[in-house]
Amino acid sequence: MQKWQLLIGGLSCLLSTTCIAQGSEKLDGVIEPSMSVELSSRIDGILEAVSVDVGDRIERHQVIAKLESEVELAALEYARAKASINSDVRLQEVSLAYGRRQLGRVKELHEKNLSSFQDFDKVETETRLTRYRLAQAKENKFLAELDLKQAEALYNRHTIRSPIGGIVVERYLNPGESVEERPIIKIARINPLRVEVVAPITMLGKVKTGQLALVTPELPVGGNHQAVVKIVDPILDAASGTFRIRLEIPNDDYSLTSGLRCQVSFLDKMVETAPDSTVENQPDAVVGNRPSAETLHTPESAAADSGVADNVATRGGEQKAGKKERYLVVTQDSLLPLKKALHEAESFKQKGVEDTYVIAKGSLKGHISLGYFKNRRVADNYRKQLAGMGIETRIVVQ
């Protein structure tokens, strides 16, 4: 009888996708949004429209509200019309072409002693002045284009977009109300979700970052969902003898929701990472956010461009053995289609982020690379700087 029990236990472990770690107990947890944002406006004004309501699912960068902007729109149209005017440049170009022809004729006559030096000097000076007037006209054209960009930026500030994708959980203001630094809506990102667990001190050292776990939400949702440990709090609560663990659950189909209680069982398995050989033999093609949009860059070329990146020696497209791990900072989510990713990369550049590349194929297709680093601490610090700009990123180890 005992042999049959052992055999059945072994078969059940083999048939399951993963086996629960020995000695692992089920812990109670709570499923929460991975991020909540109370979205407000950068400037004061009166709301003209709010296009979302409670329960609406919104995408990242979706327009959720607009402020009244008649004055800014008029200024934008004026700047656009002024920047499109090119008559002064054309006038000076024609004048310069005529002056050069006239100067050639007078110079030829002067060399034959058929014209005085005074006539030659007069035509030469007028031609030079016309050249300066043409340069001045081009400078005025350039300044008008800068004024247009400024007017567009001022106008765009009246359009409020969501920095994350998620669900609208609260709406605070309606059209006609003044913003005055008050939040307009509250957004919760539920893909992915996070699970907060309070573990006893006896489990200290048994759970590590990157470890897999099974999360069982309470009924009527139920089911088993695989999660990954993201944070193991190194600080204990001396009063209760516990510490905090945070997990992350993918929720692409939005089958789960936040606010559910759950039970968590930790698995004796770590999250799988792509081997280095895959990256070496099948590098992700990267579209550089540079003047030549057809140029393809591999992550190695991105590293060569970055001042803090590791120098990668390659031959025949393959890396030499013995290289240390390198850390690629990419956007949190894929931004497909690629045209959308290129537009987002351009917005990063306007914020002052220069080293941006759009990954065009491979496992990271649609992500934006923001730097290649040889030191994890430097990569983490750079992620914090980007987070301060409102740019969500993650690190891919290669």
- Rg computed from alpha carbons, rounded to a whole number of angstroms: 31 Å
Mean pLDDT: 80
Strand order in space, largest sheet: 1-7-10-9-8-11
Main pleated-sheet profile: 6 strands, antiparallel, barrel
Portion in helices = 25-40%
Number of helices: 8
Q: Can you walk me through this structure?
A:
This protein has 4 domains: 18-34 and 191-270, Beta Barrel (Elongation Factor Tu (Ef-tu), domain 3), CATH 2.40.30; 37-66 and 159-185, RNA polymerase II/Efflux pump adaptor protein, barrel-sandwich hybrid domain (OB fold (Dihydrolipoamide Acetyltransferase, E2P)); 71-156; 276-397, no CATH class. The protein is 33% helix and 28% strand. The protein has 8 helices and 19 strands. The chain has helices spanning 2-15, 70-84, 87-111, 117-156, 276-281, 299-305, 338-350, 376-388, and strands at 27-39, 47-50, 57-58, 63-67, 159-161, 166-171, 185-200, 211-217, 225-232, 242-249, 261-270, 286-288, 296-297, 314-315, 318-319, 327-331, 357-359, 368-373, 393-397. The strands form 4 sheets. A 6-stranded antiparallel beta barrel has the order 1-7-10-9-8-11. Strands 13-12-17-18-16-19 form a 6-stranded antiparallel β-sheet. It has a 3-stranded antiparallel β-sheet with strand order 2-4-5, with no helix packed on it. It starts with a helix and ends with a strand.
